[in-house]
Design brief:
By secondary structure, the protein is an alpha+beta fold. It contains five helices and four strands; from the N terminus they run H-H-H-H-E-E-E-E-H. The longest helix has 25 residues.
Length: 204
């Protein structure tokens, strides 16, 4: 390839990059660019998302999650690695807006809490707007761990994650309500109604 062709290729690359940057700036012009403003904005996103979920408006909820990802990307100077580490914008927004440990989170907050469901004591770790598949799946994923490993549970490891699970939309359904419904369905249909002993060889 000649130097003239290389120069033209560079021009095309730079033009495409500049066009993408302008498009991103236009798409995110309504979003704050400072951390303090962004955290307040994200807390409002969570409130709006919670209301959408309670109204069973799952399309609106996913749109809000996508906007949260755009907010994190703007804080990351337009770069995609918003979940690349503890200090990445998506991780920081999620952590600072998380529910207090032990409390049921709002829809869109991450959080850890304990409930009784399907005959088990379960410690639940709920994903927020930046959880796996949050911008594609109607309901956010969660992980379930046994509180008492001497008692039967829904897996021999004392742990199971639930991603991509769904239920018929029910107005007013809270996070813990969704978890209970999914755990009951799993025990009933996948385990035939019978919990299993936890293997003591598995690490906690």
């Amino acid at each position: 390839m000649s130097s003239e062709q290389l120069g033209f290729a560079d021009m095309l690359h730079n033009a495409a990059r500049d066009n993408a940057a302008r498009a991103f700036d236009k798409e995110t012009t309504h979003l704050p660019g400072t951390w303090a403003e962004a955290l307040d904005y994200h807390n409002q996103q969570i409130a709006n998302h919670h209301a959408a979920m309670l109204n069973s408006d799952l399309d609106l909820a996913i749109d809000i999650r996508k906007e949260a990802h755009l907010l994190a990307k703007k804080l990351n100077n337009g770069n995609p690695g918003i979940l690349a580490g503890n200090d990445a914008p998506g991780c920081k927004l999620d952590r600072q807006a998380a529910a207090q440990d032990g409390l049921i989170p709002m829809w869109g907050q991450s959080g850890t809490f304990a409930i009784e469901a399907a005959g088990m004591q379960v410690r639940v770790t709920m994903g927020g707007m930046f959880g796996i598949g949050a911008t594609a799946m109607p309901y956010l994923g969660f992980a379930a761990r046994a509180v008492d490993r001497t008692k039967p549970f829904l897996s021999a490891t004392g742990y199971r994650s639930f991603l991509g699970c769904t239920v018929p939309p029910v107005p007013g359904l809270m996070v813990d309500g969704l978890v209970r419904r999914i755990l009951r369905a799993h025990v009933t249909h996948d385990l035939g109604g019978r919990l299993v002993p936890i293997d003591p060889e598995w690490p906690k």
